[in-house]
Design brief:
Elements (H helix, E strand, L loop, with lengths): L3 H10 L8 E2 H7 L5 H10 L11 E2 L14 H10 L4 E2 L2 E2 L2 H4 L6
Parallel strand pairs: 1-2
Antiparallel strand pairs: 3-4
Helix pairs in contact: 1-3, 2-3
The structure holds a DNA duplex.
DNA sequence: AGCGTGACGAACT
DNA sequence: TAGTTCGCCACGC
């Protein structure tokens, strides 16, 4: 069963345009919540795997973070690379430019 | 009902 | 600058 916060998390992620990334804290802020962990947990569960581009969610520090699927982080990096987001040493290149902020 | 844990973040030391 | 601690919401024991 999904809670409102989780559903909202998935809805928010679907708003992320291709070639852009966002952070867990950005989503939490968009949901008007401080529970970044719930967001991370929701993304990790991700029942809407192909519908929700969970690989576009990274850490606020610009790092990739984690990933549950394929070969883990490697797969996440590959998916991002296919969308034009370059990742070097587990970190987003030009993170500030690639970062997407939700419109309130 | 309480405790520990989780694809995290920000503050503190 | 790096490592540690607390906070947050949800879930399982």
């Amino acid at each position: 069963m999904a809670t409102n916060l989780q559903k909202a998390t998935w809805e928010a992620m679907k708003l992320i345009p291709k070639g852009r990334v966002t952070t867990y804290s950005a989503i939490a802020r968009y949901l008007d919540s401080k529970a970044t962990r719930v967001v991370a947990s929701a993304v990790g569960k991700n029942p809407y795997a192909p519908t929700v581009p969970c690989h576009r969610v990274v850490l606020s520090s610009g790092k990739i973070g984690n990933y549950s699927g394929g070969n883990g982080v490697s797969t996440k990096i590959a998916l991002l690379a296919k969308e034009g987001v370059v990742v070097s040493n587990g970190k987003i290149v030009d993170f500030a430019t690639r970062l997407w902020e939700f419109e309130l």
